[in-house]
Amino acid sequence: MFEQASAAASRNVIGDWVVRGGIAFFFISAGVEKFSPHWVKLFQEIGAGQWFRYFAGVVEILGGLLVLIPWTVTAGLALLACTMGSAALILIFVIGRPADSFISLPLFIALTLYGWNRRNRHA
Length: 123
Known about the structure:
The chain is mostly helical. 78% of the residues lie in helices and 0% in strands.
């Protein structure tokens, strides 16, 4: 009797879709934005060339799409978490502006915690 209550409470399908939809929308939008000239200066500071800006955009779009597909959610979350962790490290160590990682670092932590929680919940 108690096992059923805890199993039902641990899985909220609608809430999961809402969170995943928000993650997907955010990262698909951010990925599309990487193709705008607004990001040219930042990626010049990184020094890897503008191809890296396009690559980052494609990775963010791909990660957002993977989060929407039920059997690829974990891969999408892992891809996006690695992307945000890398972005934080680049801002801190390559560009030398740790304060600018105030978005990418919390996103890395949130994506990692959400993926870990979802993995334990659906196991």
